[in-house]
Write a structure and sequence with these properties.
The complex is a heterodimer of chains A (about 160) and B (about 350). With about 160 residues, chain A is an alpha+beta fold. Chain A is built from 6 helices and 6 strands; from the N terminus they run H-H-E-H-E-E-H-E-E-H-E-H. Chain A has a domain of about 110 residues: Alpha-Beta Plaits (2-Layer Sandwich). A 3-stranded mixed sheet of chain A has the order 4-1-6. Chain A is elongated. The mean pLDDT of chain A is about 85. Chain B has one domain. Chain B is mostly helical and about 350 residues long. The model of chain B has no long low-confidence stretch (mean pLDDT about 85). The two termini of chain B are about 35 Å apart. Classes of the chains: A alpha+beta (about 160), B mainly alpha (about 350).
């Protein structure tokens, strides 16, 4: 087999080793001066596109009402059992509203099922990804933290209308 | 100069040298991390202080606060001596490396070298060979098979590469006709650098220097994928830091030796013909030495992040079948040059 020329056999030039070392060194030197893609995080922040699934939030209409009708589908579909909804009666034509709407952010797995199942487009995933807590109580988000004006969520809503 | 003056000047030089070396070592570690990051399209440590310049001090503080673990199976006295031996060897070698011409100050003439001995090169060779003991002791006394393998590999590697190193120095000594580092530098005045006159010897010496300092592509004693941490697997806290420090200090010695033996030492080519005032001449010479050293250290780091590690048999093949004959050829080459040109 010794006389058979194989693809991995080196030429004399390659066996001299030093030219190949110089080639390798040139490659690393070039890479040293290439622009870096690393983001310097706390100063520079990542701005996600509409397809990003961040913290789930409730949509607040421009009039100040919430869209949610407290049907409880999101709470039903949630695989991590993170959502708790309690319905209350209203005198408006929408008959129910959520008296209590809580998402346990420690449990939430950002799967987006709640948003997918919602018939009213009332719960959507936002672009908010900076979620840190110092205790468990802080991690349970009530309505005051969940309601976000619809203007801030337009990216995600457009994405959902196009792809869902 | 009286005996007291010599002692005082030597002490001042030693203190300055040790401080400078410690600072260089810590920043070498910093630059190693930054350059490796740059070569891999990353940023590297840039958080502690401006662009991460205080990172080395944070690292040292962290290492100081770590628990010092000694394995039960270890031979305790030797286990604790080994890192200090490594450090001792690394630091005492600097004594004979001149970093500038004679300094004339307050009517004294001070040579910018701690010990101007006439067997300087021999002293360096002797001490660097002692460095193997540190690694072998560490490997053997840890009572761990990984460490032992690291130690054995290290001794085999160092012995084979020291031969080609010694023979490549032979060419330099033939030209300088002296073992005194000052004379070797003086023999390379102008562009008569040994790296230009005897390129083969230069290459073999640089390769052997890489092997001697256990740097990639020759870092088999601490090959992480096979040997966990090699000879320092069982070391922690400041003992580990000792090995770390010694490795980088050794790198500086190797670079300083290459500068002294092959790149004209502290000489800036033809600087003495410019007619500069003497103080400026000394300053530029010391700066030249520092710049040569810095470029070589960059080269060491650069090579580390470019080349893969040798397999063990390849390492031995290269050492005995390539480096050794090449260094012998170099001696013949230099001898022929001396015969022909009567240098």
């Amino acid at each position: 087999m010794a006389d058979k020329k194989r693809l991995k056999d080196l030429t004399t030039w390659q066996k001299a080793y030093i030219p190949e070392i110089v080639k390798g060194l040139k490659l690393t030197l070039e890479n040293m001066f290439k622009p870096k893609f690393t983001m310097k995080y706390p100063e520079e922040k990542f701005i996600p596109t509409g397809s990003y699934r961040g913290r789930p939030v409730l949509v607040q209409e421009e009039s100040g009402d919430e869209r949610c009708v407290a049907c409880g589908l999101c709470s039903r579909v949630c695989p991590a059992l993170a959502i708790e909804v309690q319905a209350g009666e209203t005198d408006r034509e929408k008959e129910r509203y959520p008296e209590k709407f809580e998402i346990n952010m420690i449990r939430c797995i950002f799967c987006g099922f709640c948003e997918e199942v919602c018939p009213e487009e009332a719960i959507v995933m936002s672009k908010d990804y900076e979620l840190a807590f110092t205790n468990r109580e802080d991690a349970i988000y009530g309505k005051e933290k969940l309601l976000v004006p619809v203007t801030q969520l337009q990216d995600r809503i457009n994405f959902l209308r196009h792809y869902k | 100069m009286g005996i007291w003056e010599i002692i005082i000047f030597s002490l001042i030089k030693i203190i300055i040298l040790v401080v400078v070396i410690l600072l260089t070592v810590s920043y070498l570690v910093y630059f190693e991390r930054r350059i490796s990051a740059w070569a891999q399209n990353r940023l590297g440590p840039n958080r502690v202080g401006w662009e991460g310049v205080l990172q080395p001090f944070a690292d040292v503080l962290k290492l100081l606060l770590k628990e010092d673990i000694v394995p039960n199976a270890a031979n305790k006295p030797i286990h604790s001596i080994a890192p200090f031996l490594a450090l001792f060897v690394a630091f005492s070698t600097y004594a004979v490396i001149p970093f500038g011409p004679n300094l004339r100050i307050f009517g004294y003439t001070i040579p910018l070298v701690v010990a101007d001995v006439n067997i300087g090169v021999l002293y360096v060779l002797a001490l660097t060979s002692l460095g193997v003991y540190a690694i072998t002791f560490a490997g053997w006394s840890s009572g761990s098979k990984y460490s032992l393998f690291g130690g054995i590999r290290s001794s085999a590697q160092m012995i084979s590469y020291e031969i080609s190193m010694g023979f490549s120095i032979g060419g330099v000594l033939l030209l300088a006709q002296s073992l005194r580092p000052e004379d070797i530098i003086a023999a390379q005045s102008g562009w008569m650098w040994n790296a230009i006159i005897q390129p083969i010897g230069f290459i073999t010496f640089v390769v052997s220097a890489f092997a001697e300092t256990n740097r990639l592509p020759f870092d088999l004693p601490e090959a992480e994928p096979e040997l966990v941490g090699g000879f320092h697997t069982e070391y922690s806290s400041m003992k580990f830091a000792g090995f770390f420090l010694a490795e980088y200090a050794n790198m500086i010695i190797a670079a300083a030796m290459i500068v002294t033996l092959y790149l004209g030492g502290w000489q800036f080519p033809y600087l003495e013909t410019f007619g500069l005032p003497y103080g400026l001449f000394v300053a530029i010479s010391v700066l030249t030495f520092a710049i040569k050293l810095a470029l070589l250290l960059f080269f060491f780091i650069w090579v580390r992040w470019s080349l893969p590690r040798f397999r063990y048999d390849q390492l031995m093949n290269l050492g005995w079948k390539v480096m050794f004959p090449l260094s012998l050829i170099n001696i013949v080459w230099v001898a022929a040059l001396i015969m022909i040109f009567k240098i």
